[in-house]
Amino acid sequence: MHRDLRLNAVGRRYGGRGPWVLRGVDLAIAPGTLTRVEGANGTGKSTLLRLLARLDAPSEGRVTGRPRTAYVPERFPSVLPFTAAGYLTRLGTVHGLSRGSAARAAAAWLERFGAAAYAGTPMARLSKGGSQKVAVAQALLADPELLVLDEAWTGLDAEARDELERAVAERTAAGGAVVFVDHDPRRLAGAPDATYTLVDGGLKARTGGDGTGLGPHTVVVVRGAAGARLPPDAARLVSTAEETDSGRHRLTVPASRSDVLLRTLLAARPPWHVVSVAPPLDPGSRA
Ligand SMILES: Nc1ncnc2c1ncn2[C@@H]1O[C@H](COP(=O)(O)OP(=O)(O)OP(=O)(O)O)[C@@H](O)[C@H]1O
Question: How remote is the CA of residue 41 from the centroid of ligand 1, in Å?
């Protein structure tokens, strides 16, 4: 399937004869999945993310698949000669939105990240945090099939960090793929379908993935029509689902995804009834 992105025996080194930063990397990124990439400083995380975003080409091996991709770089150029809203609107039109839709989407994303007040501020005058909000908004603007986030949370305030976690959950629930690097091990804890560590230029899968119990989980009890199955958008978000009684389901969901799960269930047709929501449990405990 062309939306699946695959790296096949990929290697990357800089400057022709430089040392191999990556070598023999095989990786498949399927729609609807969340992937975390970890590694010590300088192990090639950004290099890998640029290859996934197709902004860089491998020195050897192949990259196949062309999902519509958006990327938040580690360092976002803030000297662009536009206001925040002007820049986002232009980008929206590049992504195929009409000017009006692009302007509305730009305003909506700035609002979501608490940046509406600087919509008219030239990019060069934005603070680091303000500029990072624009960096994140430009990536989310066009509902990408693949979202690549390189330390995208760095510089955001606490509310914007939470909002970005919600936006990631929305993307994966909608069937998009997200790949991220973040220095905070608690980021989206429990949510990734796969976690890889870069060691000696290669990828090591963390055994057991990360969707099996790490990080705080919320327990949500919902009721649907007898025999009804969870809507696919909701099923993608949960770690476990158990029908405890006819039509009554007990779901565990990574805390970072619980808001999006509740919204998805309430918006389903017919809507699901939320019976209870328990606060996040300690990592590993989902009893
Ligand atoms: N454009 C480039 N030209 C030359 N060398 C580069 C280039 N980009 C990265 N490198 C080198 O490749 C190696 C991996 O860099 P990369 O930025 O991918 O690692 P990283 O794991 O993202 O690092 P960090 O955690 O510090 O952000 C480093 O030795 C770096 O100096």
Answer: 8
